[in-house]
Amino acid sequence: MTEQTFRIAPATVFAGDAAGEGKCGRCAYRTLCLPSGLSDRDLSLVEGAIGCRRRLARGDALFRAGQPFANLFAIRFGHVMTCRSDHRGERYITGFQMAGDLLGMDAIANGEHASTAIALEDSEVCEMPYARLQRLMAELPQLMEHFHRTMSQEILRDQSAIRFLGILRADERMAGLMLNLSARYAMRGFSPRRFRLRMSRDDMGRYLGLKMETVSRLLAQFRDLGLIRLDRRELEILDMRRLEALAAGTRADAAP
């Protein structure tokens, strides 16, 4: 499948902003986007650096590869995937992002986006002009430290993805993806065992480096082994311990 064309979502300033609705101090994912311990004054400065909120419909592109870099984006709600194209025009997926995650940091070095970000469902992001953030980080050292920590975590995720493709077996990759989603939902106060897969089987395959048929076979295998229950996209992890063992390289078909 070659690279698709996605509609760029328009910038929208919502009326609720004036009343303080959706501001950083009231956001449920503030601790993921911002450092702890910010004073009311500091929060006010951060809120002033947010340019607008951008609403995306499912399938909208937040930005495209090659687009000039100007803003970072924090996801308020919804899910987004980032993808690139290889030399043949084939699309592969580099990550699945959710509320509290930052997007666009890969564009800082070269001044243009290296990937395309596409909404997996109706979503909303806070748009933060990078020039404003730079000035603010000079005034708030704890914000700069948090930003550097976030960049470091993104580098580690990229290294983990390379390991996914280069070393792990197909079933280990699938188990690793499920555990990654589980841990991230738990960080956001949701169940680590029951959640909805926002991505399609094709998307999962393009992230894990597997064919869609292999993804479907692995999901059926995990179900038959009693590791998961899957109803369309509603996933329940039934045996976390064995799934963790599988991701670590131990076979999961042994008796529980």
TrEMBL record:
PROSITE patterns associated with the record: CNMP_BINDING_3 (PS50042), HTH_CRP_2 (PS51063)
SUPFAM superfamilies assigned to the protein according to its UniProt record, in alphabetical order: cAMP-binding domain-like, Winged helix' DNA-binding domain
Cyclic nucleotide-binding domain span: 34-154
Transmembrane segments: none
InterPro entries reported in the protein's UniProt record: cNMP-bd_dom, cNMP-bd_dom_sf, Env_Response_Regulators, HTH_CRP, RmlC-like_jellyroll, WH-like_DNA-bd_sf, WH_DNA-bd_sf
Keywords of the record: DNA-binding, Transcription, Transcription regulation
Every HTH crp-type domain range: 168-241
UniProt cross-references to Pfam families, sorted A to Z: cNMP_binding, HTH_Crp_2
MF annotations from Gene Ontology: DNA binding; DNA-binding transcription factor activity
GO terms under cellular component: cytosol
Record protein name field: Helix-turn-helix domain-containing protein
Species of the source: Massilia cellulosiltytica
